[in-house]
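Example record used in the benchmark description.
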Amino acid sequence: MSNSGHPKDHGRRRGLMLVLSSPSGAGKTTMAKMLLEEFPDVKLSVSATTRARRPNEVDGKDYWFKTEAEFQAMIRRGEFLEWAHVFDKYYGTPKADTVARLDAGEDVLFDVDWQGADALHDQMPNDVVSVFILPPSIVALEERLANRPGSNPEMVARRMVDAKREIMHWRRYDYVIVNEDLAVAYQRLKRILLTERLKRLRQLDLEDHVRSLLGEG
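Model output (structure tokens):
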């Protein structure tokens, strides 16, 4: 048994890129945290950024902190799976770090919007497994957003507009989970992960195993 309480997969496997998207308030962050706690071999993707490091943040753990010149040079060299310019700061997913984790048999978890999900899929289509999380209703979503600490009616209204814009892209995803009950929704996410790990292309020892069965090894 592995540390997470699940049987170990037979033989070596290539990791996968588990891409989670949802409108704000649908439970994506909570479900991602649950997955990371249960599965030690699922790691959160570490983004590069040009924003200043906060006192409690660790380079390489929270973010890869870069100067704007360093970030621009990485863009020119094609070193990002995806990147964006947000509020005068750059954010991006370094390709080398993700590929190293996949090669080591680790799964990499991405918390991105639909545009980030599209970019990741375009770069590494065989490795991406995308999951979109929907709220049970618009009323429930509005209530969740209103109950967040520090929220106000104007903020909720703005987030609801953004949420509807995000929901419009649900068909782009491999899987869709309606998060009516968190425990049930999480079990569905877990089943997706465990099933996708078993795909033929991710089981690296199968070719050798089949050759040995056929006496060709």
